[in-house]
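Your task:
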Amino acid sequence: MAKYEIRKYDYSTYTKIYERGLEFNTFAEVKNFIIKNKNTEMVHFGKVYQGDKYLFDPQEIFEYIEDAKYRKTQFQKTKPLGLKSLLEYIDNPASIKM
């Protein structure tokens, strides 16, 4: 069983479209897939899970990246994009600062 999974949903019924989503062993693999496949349906309509636990929407990675870019133009140091820093950012965007 993979550690992480991106599941695509049908938003009219909020049910999974696919029985099995895309599976990954590490957060780095998930992050790389999302960044490289920014314009795919799986990224736009998917959700990332660890087992049965919902973690985040793939679009939140792009929000983190854009916020980090902006803060760097303001000469603020930001945390690297990792699972822990992303989940903290989702709960509190100010946590992106070092």
Notes: The two ends are 35 Å apart (CA to CA). The CA atoms of residues 5 and 52 lie 9 Å apart.
